[in-house]
Predict the structure.
Amino acid sequence: MSQSLKRLKVKLRIAVVQLNPRIGHVDQTLARINSIVSRIERYRPDIVVFPEFALSGYSFHSRSHIEPYLSQPTNGPAWDICQRISKRLSCITVMGYPEIVRESSQKAYNSAIVVNANGELVFNYRKAFLYYTEEEWGCSENPAGFQTFDLPFYQKACDSDGRLYDVSLKSAIGICMDLSPYKFQAPFYDFEFSSFHSEHSTELILFPMAWLHSISATRESKNPEQQKKEIAQSQQSLGFQSHGSQGEYQLDILLNDGTCIKESPSAVTCDLPDVQVKSAFSHPAEPDLTNVDYWILRFMPLLAYRQRKNWFSGGLLATVLKKFQEIRTTYMGASLEKPWSFEHKNTVAVMCNRCGVEDGTTVYAGSSSVFKFNGKYGNFEEELDSSNRSVEVLGSLGKGYEGVLLRDVEIEVLREVDDKAIAIVPERT
Ligand code: GLN
């Protein structure tokens, strides 16, 4: 049997479901999920991603508050719905949920399951970097830190002659705060998560999130009461639901076969009291571009950057890397061998956020997006945001509505292929 190294294109259809769950309303959220899934079923997505704590809601304040929602990976409502969706759509389903280990430790985690088309558990990931509300209910950090796993796809990799192969993608889950500096205390430029995945050449990153909009009142807020009032006012003027979506969803579907569907819940006119809140929070059907740019910036090691090649002459990089005690081989994307270690690689990142408001203080940013980091333009780019040509923003949902973003993505991979195992089947149109 002969083997050869081939460049293959892995073509995947990805559905990103943005939700607005409310604590105590699991059944209502499940009903809306069913309604969203029935709208995308005919497009046969390969992967369906849901947000962090997609069914339970996010802001828990004590262990007894979260206790009724804790479950094991293969037990509980997240497992049930993921299995059902995976089998019905013949797809991979990813969903965030609050996990309990029912052994002596009784440890709780912020986790996400990955379920395959047979309804089997492929991976259970636990969040490594925690947000401060998680401390309130005694969440533990992932002892394994950031991780990768192989995610198999059948007949999804295509060579230049149009032959199709089975392929496994080196994949990862990140959960919300995993993208931020550890406890917001680590240096911003350490880029822990994206450096790890650039060094491990991760090809597909799936990101369930409950990412806060900047108008949220948090621990750091100077005048939380005033902010709460402004949030309530803007919610009212926009007719915004603090949870749910009144049965109306935002659909944003753009596929290679020419399918293009863009629907938003009926536009709301807004007359917001405060200029700052108005600009930040109005236009709920549009993404928060500041937020999208921030996520892109946190993937800095995967972005082309002209200055990179000048930085580390004279041994400075070696000194910086020593600080990481040999666990890191790159800093801000630069390695000792190559100015940009991600050059010629590519990675798709699926950012699946929630929307809505919890506790009258926590406003989620929505803006769920699909990014492709293409590993090109290393010597040219200067801006570390969506204008950088090395990141393709394939689509984003609005900040305020439940709905679904559906995109076809292509990931180029190099694989040893075995001529005898070649199976030729017609491509899906
Ligand atoms: N960095 C995130 C934020 O500011 C953390 C939230 C989370 O982990 N859910 O929104």
About this structure: The first strand starts at residue 3 and ends at 18. The chain has one domain: 3-215+245-265+282-305+340-418.
